[in-house]
Amino acid sequence: MTQRWTATGLSQDLPKAVAMAGHWQGHDLAVWRSASGRLQAWNDRCPHRGMRLSHGFVRGETLACIYHGWVYGADGGCKHIPAHPALTPPATIRVAAFACVEQDGVIWVAPAETVGAPVALRGLQPLRSISLTCDVVAVRLAEPALSGDDVLRGLVQIGGQACEVCLLVQHGASGLTLHALCAVGADRIAASRWLEDLRRRAERKGAA
Ligand code: FES
Q1: Is 64 in the pocket of ligand 1 (CB under 6 A)?
Q2: Does 95 lie in the same domain as 18?
Q3: Is position 62 within any domain?
Q4: pTM of this prediction?
Q5: What gap in Å lies between CA 25 and CA 114, rounded to an integer?
Q6: If 159 and its partner were Cys, which of 85, 190, 199, 200 is the partner (CB 3.0–4.6 Å)?
Q7: Using a 6 Å cutoff on CB, does residue 70 contact ligand 1?
Q8: Does the beta carbon of 67 sit less than 6 angstroms from any atom of ligand 1?
Q9: How far is CA 70 from CA 74, 90, 176, in A?
Q10: Which DSSP string do the residues of 149-200 spell out, in sequence order?
Q11: What CATH number is attached to the domain comprising 74?
Q12: Measured between alpha carbons, how far is residue 118 from residues 5, 8, 36, 45, 110 in Å?
């Protein structure tokens, strides 16, 4: 298994006290931000009966499972079991944590033991994330100015001007999610329209 940083979302889409689903190379993750802003990426499976923790509720610096309300602290350990309020949960009840960093407005995840840093994206600003029902080959066919595999970059025409864009590829079961960045100062509305048009063109290529 390749140990590498993968973009799983944009910082702007995960406010404080919110949990969302993320992915790392086929692993489902619960990515959540505590009330104070601390970011976590955990295995998306409650140790109790396997409910998705990404459906849970952030309470202060903890994440509570939506099913039976087991509460997990910042270290991934279970801190409270509502059905047994007097019980101190055993330390063995713990959620597996991934490494998780924010850089250039992007949320990156990797296995906990991964060393090094994600790719630097200087001069670019986060735009938006978009899902496509095709593969990376179809995206490159639709926009030949883009090159790369997990990180697509290139100079494209947006609103009649050349603009640098970067699309961070997240693979899913039924297609891709692209986390898009564009050059600082670019017209964000025009860039967003370009991205939607790219999706249409890429999905047509993928279906051909
Ligand atoms: S499945 Fe999560 S608390 Fe029961």
Answers
A1: no
A2: yes
A3: yes
A4: 0.93
A5: 14
A6: 190
A7: yes
A8: yes
A9: 14, 13, 32
A10: SSEEEEEEEETTEEEEEEEEEEEETTEEEEEEEEETTS-HHHHHHHHHHHHH
A11: 2.102.10.10
A12: 6, 12, 24, 25, 9
Measured from the Cβ of residue 192, the count of other Cβ atoms closer than 10 Å reads 16
Per-residue model confidence (pLDDT) at position 12 = 97
Same domain, 98 and 161: no
The full DSSP string for 48-88 is TT---GGGSEEETTEEE-TTT--EE-TTSBEEE-TTSTT--
Per residue in 109-123, pLDDT tens?
Answer: 999 888 889 999 999
Whether 135 and 202 share a structural domain:
yes
Of the candidates 41, 75, 50, the one whose C-alpha atom is nearest the C-alpha of residue 61 is: 75
At 2, list the tokens: 């390749």
Atom 1, ligand 1: residue with shortest CA distance:
49
Co-location of 95 and 173 in the same domain: no
Identify how many contiguous H helices and E strands the chain contains and give both numbers: 2, 14
User: 92 and 173, same structural domain?
Assistant: no
Mean pLDDT score across all residues of the chain:
95
